[in-house]
Amino acid sequence: MATKKRAASKTSGAGSSRTPRAPARRKTPKKKAAASAGLAPLDCVIDSPEPALAELERVVTKTGGAVLGRYRDPLGGHPHLFAVVPIDKVEPTPFQRDLSETHHKRLAEVIEKTGRFLDPIVAITAPENKGGFWTPNGRHRLEAMRRLGAKAITVLLVPTREVAWQILALNTEKAHNLKERSLEVIRIYRGLLEEDGSRAESGFAFYLEDPALVTLGVCYEQNARFAGGAYHPVLRRVERFSEEPIEDAIAEHEKLAKLTLEVEANVSAAVAKLREKGLVSPYLRSFVVARINPLRWIQGELPSAEKVLTTMRDRAAKFNADKIKQEDVARAGGGVPDEE
Question: ∠ CA 128-215-103 to the nearest 5 degrees?
Fold first, then answer.
């Protein structure tokens, strides 16, 4: 109990005496000398079965699939399988971006025209109660092949299930908007709750990227039209990853999400009053949020996320649209458009 209380003091909620830190900037790896890292081609070959892959090979065989080869990845030297498995044994992980009908249909057209499936999907074993395999980043390719009636699909099988949580970080080439990123993060979070809920939230910081995205993800779950862009700059200043188990830490995010949605309801009402006055700008929401945000006047130690959001909610409820003129909005400049 004492340990849990000490851990609780490190969370981002109310009562924290530590100053929330700004999110750490990601360090871009320095460019290394050519051909100075990883394995040579012949070193990637695995001639005979090894313990790390034995169970994975059994799962492939049990599901009616076929192992085509074993290899070590050329950078980290981790063992993987190259296999073909029945397509009905593969499902997307439940925490990735929503399926795009346009994307997977167009992809199906291209695959059908070429008559070749040349881009294997990454896969891991699904949880025991699910059976088969999960793909963390091949949802559209999987659906395209299903649309074409394929019986099987080629996969790069990774024996380490934790890679499923790393995929969000690996997919840096995809242009996620804030809503997509937040929904992906909260889906990963809920998946982690099922798989490893006793582990400290801070231990998943690399996969989740930003604690504010967890809170915003809860908001988007409850309101798909939520304007998260107006609140992300506020939340990222006052939230940080907790040292508590994620099964406990999620309650703090849900509490903050509830407060954020209350702020948004009051802000939306204020924006409606400004529009009734005839004020025109795509940045009215950002203007109101800036006016009620207490952080712009605070230097040094920041208040808790709960206190900041409570202050914003109450200020938004008392927002006096009659005192605002069009030139006030114009002087405020841009920000996040209301449609964001």
Answer: 65
